[in-house]
């Protein structure tokens, strides 16, 4: 990170407000924290010692929540995990009132996942603490896009000029929107692939440089990376396709379709995987997959986000 650079954001509500320089600062900082994570013994630094972080997860999460908790512990932060099911929210308290009560306890940073798009922006207007968006409805999931970028940059040593196909349930995906902001800002070429009912054509109004395709096989030979998305049946995906069998027939990444790709193509998936639906186990566990690398890389990337929000000058980590 240049000596003169200062991370200019108090919150991470999405990728949209970030500049390419901000994104590179996060990825570079993550590289430094990856070295901490790879230490054989003590994987902890005192960078956020005496800082209080509250984890507010209003939706189920395994990977993201655990990843944030590990990142916070490796930075030596103090942590409170807020259980929405047993909180006063179940008694009718509003999100803002819950937030103001938390604010009265003086947290430094709040990590939140919520089903309502924009819930984080609402919280940011009422709280002094920094807010990190850990996923809001179908809007954004910024740290997932950052760890995807980190994984791709580590594999290809660049983001500019990469050709990335994002395949599947585009309509319901917050991951795809954050990735569209990030990859296009960094000069990658993105093709969205899926049935017309799951790929809103109006996305080209926001990202005119992207391509949209409804046939997967012609797209595959031209990609450096293929990012498969989970079919979110719990969000109503089934209403937009004739049936699961039809979806598998045309859009599943299987061994036969993988042979259409370059030999070194990278296969990504944000998880959790519907094995046998959007991707077969043979491909998900095969030599091209970077799926567990994404999970591993999530920790240093989230350490970098938390550290830069609390420490915008990017001082040396002791």
TrEMBL record:
<keyword id="KW-0808">Transferase</keyword>
<feature type="domain" description="Aspartate/ornithine carbamoyltransferase Asp/Orn-binding">
    <location>
        <begin position="160"/>
        <end position="308"/>
    </location>
</feature>
<keyword id="KW-0665">Pyrimidine biosynthesis</keyword>
<feature type="binding site">
    <location>
        <position position="174"/>
    </location>
    <ligand>
        <name>L-aspartate</name>
    </ligand>
</feature>
<dbReference type="GO" id="GO:0004070">
    <property type="term" value="F:aspartate carbamoyltransferase activity"/>
</dbReference>
<feature type="binding site">
    <location>
        <position position="63"/>
    </location>
    <ligand>
        <name>carbamoyl phosphate</name>
    </ligand>
</feature>
<feature type="binding site">
    <location>
        <position position="271"/>
    </location>
    <ligand>
        <name>carbamoyl phosphate</name>
    </ligand>
</feature>
<feature type="binding site">
    <location>
        <position position="113"/>
    </location>
    <ligand>
        <name>carbamoyl phosphate</name>
    </ligand>
</feature>
<dbReference type="InterPro" id="IPR036901">
    <property type="entry name" value="Asp/Orn_carbamoylTrfase_sf"/>
</dbReference>
<feature type="binding site">
    <location>
        <position position="144"/>
    </location>
    <ligand>
        <name>carbamoyl phosphate</name>
    </ligand>
</feature>
<feature type="binding site">
    <location>
        <position position="272"/>
    </location>
    <ligand>
        <name>carbamoyl phosphate</name>
    </ligand>
</feature>
<comment type="similarity">
    <text>Belongs to the aspartate/ornithine carbamoyltransferase superfamily. ATCase family.</text>
</comment>
<dbReference type="InterPro" id="IPR006131">
    <property type="entry name" value="Asp_carbamoyltransf_Asp/Orn-bd"/>
</dbReference>
<feature type="domain" description="Aspartate/ornithine carbamoyltransferase carbamoyl-P binding">
    <location>
        <begin position="10"/>
        <end position="153"/>
    </location>
</feature>
<dbReference type="Pfam" id="PF00185">
    <property type="entry name" value="OTCace"/>
</dbReference>
<dbReference type="GO" id="GO:0044205">
    <property type="term" value="P:'de novo' UMP biosynthetic process"/>
</dbReference>
<feature type="binding site">
    <location>
        <position position="91"/>
    </location>
    <ligand>
        <name>L-aspartate</name>
    </ligand>
</feature>
<dbReference type="InterPro" id="IPR006130">
    <property type="entry name" value="Asp/Orn_carbamoylTrfase"/>
</dbReference>
<comment type="pathway">
    <text>Pyrimidine metabolism; UMP biosynthesis via de novo pathway; (S)-dihydroorotate from bicarbonate: step 2/3.</text>
</comment>
<protein>
    <recommendedName>
        <fullName>Aspartate carbamoyltransferase</fullName>
        <ecNumber>2.1.3.2</ecNumber>
    </recommendedName>
</protein>
<comment type="function">
    <text>Catalyzes the condensation of carbamoyl phosphate and aspartate to form carbamoyl aspartate and inorganic phosphate, the committed step in the de novo pyrimidine nucleotide biosynthesis pathway.</text>
</comment>
<feature type="binding site">
    <location>
        <position position="64"/>
    </location>
    <ligand>
        <name>carbamoyl phosphate</name>
    </ligand>
</feature>
<feature type="binding site">
    <location>
        <position position="230"/>
    </location>
    <ligand>
        <name>L-aspartate</name>
    </ligand>
</feature>
<dbReference type="GO" id="GO:0005829">
    <property type="term" value="C:cytosol"/>
</dbReference>
<dbReference type="GO" id="GO:0006520">
    <property type="term" value="P:amino acid metabolic process"/>
</dbReference>
<dbReference type="GO" id="GO:0016597">
    <property type="term" value="F:amino acid binding"/>
</dbReference>
<feature type="binding site">
    <location>
        <position position="141"/>
    </location>
    <ligand>
        <name>carbamoyl phosphate</name>
    </ligand>
</feature>
<dbReference type="InterPro" id="IPR006132">
    <property type="entry name" value="Asp/Orn_carbamoyltranf_P-bd"/>
</dbReference>
<dbReference type="GO" id="GO:0006207">
    <property type="term" value="P:'de novo' pyrimidine nucleobase biosynthetic process"/>
</dbReference>
<comment type="subunit">
    <text>Heterododecamer (2C3:3R2) of six catalytic PyrB chains organized as two trimers (C3), and six regulatory PyrI chains organized as three dimers (R2).</text>
</comment>
<dbReference type="Pfam" id="PF02729">
    <property type="entry name" value="OTCace_N"/>
</dbReference>
<dbReference type="InterPro" id="IPR002082">
    <property type="entry name" value="Asp_carbamoyltransf"/>
</dbReference>
């Amino acid at each position: 990170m240049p000596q003169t650079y200062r991370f200019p954001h108090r919150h991470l509500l999405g990728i949209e407000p970030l500049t390419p320089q901000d994104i590179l600062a996060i990825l570079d900082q993550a590289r430094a924290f990856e070295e901490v994570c790879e230490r054989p013994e003590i994987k902890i630094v005192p960078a956020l010692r005496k800082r209080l972080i509250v984890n507010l997860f209003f939706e189920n999460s395994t990977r993201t929540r655990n990843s944030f908790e590990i990142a916070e512990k490796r930075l030596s932060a103090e942590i409170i995990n807020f259980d929405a099911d047993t909180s006063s929210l179940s008694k009718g308290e509003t999100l803002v009132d819950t937030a103001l009560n938390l604010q009265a306890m003086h947290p430094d940073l709040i990590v939140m996942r919520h089903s309502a798009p924009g819930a984080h922006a609402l919280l940011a207007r009422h709280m002094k603490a920094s807010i990190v968006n850990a996923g809001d409805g179908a809007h954004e999931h910024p740290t997932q896009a950052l760890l995807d970028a980190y994984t791709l940059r580590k594999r290809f040593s660049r983001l500019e000029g990469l050709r990335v196909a994002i395949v599947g349930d585009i309509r319901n995906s917050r991951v795809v929107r954050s990735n569209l902001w990030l990859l296009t800002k960094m000069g990658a070429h993105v093709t969205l692939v899926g049935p017309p009912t799951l790929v809103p054509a109006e996305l080209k109004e926001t990202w005119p440089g992207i391509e949209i395709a409804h046939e997967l096989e012609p797209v595959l030979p031209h990609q450096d990376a293929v990012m498969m998305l989970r079919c979110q049946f719990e969000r109503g995906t089934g209403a937009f396709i004739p049936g699961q069998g039809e979806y598998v027939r045309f859009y599943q990444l299987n061994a036969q379709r993988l042979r259409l790709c370059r030999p070194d193509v990278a296969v990504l998936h944000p998880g959790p995987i519907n094995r046998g639906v959007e991707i077969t186990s043979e491909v998900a566990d095969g030599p091209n997959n970077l799926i567990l690398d994404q999970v591993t890389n999530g920790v240093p990337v989230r350490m970098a986000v938390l550290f830069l929000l609390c420490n915008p000058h990017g001082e040396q980590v002791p």
